[in-house]
Amino acid sequence: MDLADRASFGPPPGFRRRLHFLRKSHRAALSAPLVGGEVAEPVARELLAAEPPRGRPRVEVMDDGKPSPGPLSETSEFLFSFGVIADIQYADLEDGYNFQGNRRRYYRHSLVHLQGAIEHWNTAGSPPRCVLQLGDVIDGYNAQYKTSEKSLELVMSTFQTLKAPVHHTWGNHEFYNFSRHYLTNSKLNTKFLEDQIVRHPETVPSESYYAYHFVPFPQFRFILLDAYDLSVLGVDQSSAKYQQCLKILRGHNPNSELNSPQGLSEPQFVQFNGGFSQEQLNWLNEVLTFSDTNQEKVVIVSHLPIYPEASDSVCLAWNYRDALAVIWSHKCVVCFFAGHTHDGGYSEDPFGVHHVNLEGVIETAPDSQAFGTVYVYPDKMLLKGKGRVPDRVMSYKRGNALQA
C-alpha cells in the first residue's frame, strides 16, 4: 500500500491499535454477517477481545543454508526453506515520497533490491523450495505513465533468473495497473503451480477468485488467498460484482473520498483494501479441514493482513474477522504472511498463529535490504531477515482450536 493511495488527508487515527479495536468495534458483529456473507463459524468473543502475547525478541540465525535451531530445540532437524519478499512496487521513476513527505520511495532501486534477493537465494547453501511474492510488484504510477506492461515485463524477467519457483499474490497496485481479466492471463498468475488433492473436489478453488494451495515439502501445505476477491479495483464498473462491492464499501465508508479512513469506526473499509468472499472462505475451510485430518502444518499467504495486533488497522482486509474465524477453527495453521503495510509487523495470536507482515522493498534505502528466508523445522520456523526485516523464531504452539 502506498500512503499516496489515501489521497489528500492526514494520517488516519488509531495507528497500531491493539486488539481492543476488536473489543471496541462491534462484538455482536462477530456472529453476524459481514462483507463475505455469513461467518463460517462464530469465534468466541472473549478470544477476539483477548490480549495476545507480545512479539518474540530478535534472534541470531545462521545463514549458511542450515541455520542453528537455537536454544529452543538443539536436536531439531532442518527440513526446508522458502523466501519471502513484499511490495517491490517498481517504476522507472526518480525517488519520491509518501503523501506526508516523510517516507522516501525508491522506485528504480527496488529492482536492484529484488536482484540482490534473487542472487542471495540462488547462491544459498540450501536453496529455497519456493519464494512467496506478497503483492504490489510494480507501482501504480506505471498506469499514469502508461508503462505498466513494460515495467511488469522487466520485473518478471528478473524473477525468471530465480532458480526456485515463485508464487505471486495480487495487491492493490496490481489492480491499479491491470484488470482482473488481464492478471488472470498474465505471468503473475501462478495458479499452475497448485497441487490437487485427489478425491477431494471440495479443495479445488473456484475460477472466480485467485487462490490455490501447494505442498513444497511433505506435511506442509501453503495456501495463497485472494484478498481482493471483494473489491472495486480491477473490476468492470458495469458488472454486478462491482456494484455489490461498491455497496459494501459505501455501506461502511460514507466519505466522498473512498480511499480516506477519516472518521471511520472500521478504518479498513477503504478503496485500496478488499476482502474475501464467502465462497473463498468456504473453500479455505475445506482445505484446512483436510490439513487437520492429515496432520499437516499450513502457511497462509495474502497481500492484506488480517490480525490487528500485527498491522495498522487501516491496512486490514475488509472482513478480516471472517478469515480469523475460519483459521481459528482449525489446528493446522502455523503462520500467516502478508505485505501491504510497508512498515512490517508481527504478532502471535491467541491460537499460536504467527502473523508476519513483511517490510516493503519500495521504502528500503539502497544501502539496506528487505526480504527474508524462512527455515522450517519440525517444531518451528526461523525467519532470517535481511536489512529492514528482523529475524524471528516462530514456534508451533497451537492449543486447542475452536472446532467447527
Automatic annotation (TrEMBL):
Residue ranges occupied by any Calcineurin-like phosphoesterase domain in the UniProt entry: 82-343
Co-factor(s): Mg(2+)
Tagged with keyword Zinc: yes
InterPro entries named in the record: Calcineurin-like_PHP, Metallo-depent_PP-like, MPP_ADPRM
Chain positions covered by the region annotation Disordered: 50-70
Pfam families xref list: Metallophos
One Gene Ontology MF term: CDP-glycerol diphosphatase activity
Keyword Hydrolase: yes
Keywords of this entry: Acetylation, Hydrolase, Metal-binding, Zinc
EC number(s) stated in the UniProt entry for this protein: 3.6.1.13, 3.6.1.16, 3.6.1.53
Entry similarity comment: Belongs to the ADPRibase-Mn family.
Functional summary from the UniProt entry: Hydrolyzes ADP-ribose, IDP-ribose, CDP-glycerol, CDP-choline and CDP-ethanolamine, but not other non-reducing ADP-sugars or CDP-glucose. May be involved in immune cell signaling as suggested by the second-messenger role of ADP-ribose, which activates TRPM2 as a mediator of oxidative/nitrosative stress.
Name the record gives this protein: Manganese-dependent ADP-ribose/CDP-alcohol diphosphatase
Source organism (scientific name): Crocuta crocuta
Lineage: Eukaryota, Metazoa, Chordata, Craniata, Vertebrata
